[in-house]
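Protein entry
_____________
===
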Amino acid sequence: MRAPARIVILGGGFAGVSVAREFERRDPRGRRASVTLISRENFTLFTPMLPEVAAGRIESRHVTEPLRSLLRGTKFELGEIVGIDAQARCVTTRHPLTHDEKRVEY
């Protein structure tokens, strides 16, 4: 049997989260693909609601959602992208707090 494909999604905004959720929907047990989402923030921000936060109608906690709670079958990596090597099929990340660098293969 063939090993699952390794897919890396860069960014935890609307597009990145939507793509990861679609992979989870199509392959709920992760048999065909192992998906990793890399983002410099550990939450997603619902930007259309920011005017309500600024106006004081809602609290800021109501427009953020932890990425780990949104993505059940996707591995999450906290990090900034510092390099992409298409030839070697890997992404280099730097942790925003520790500044440790890590290579993630795809």
Summary: The two ends are 19 Å apart (CA to CA). Strands lie at 5-10, 33-39, 43-45, 64-66, 75-78, 80-85, 90-94, 101-105. The chain is about 20% helix and 35% strand. The mean pLDDT is 94.
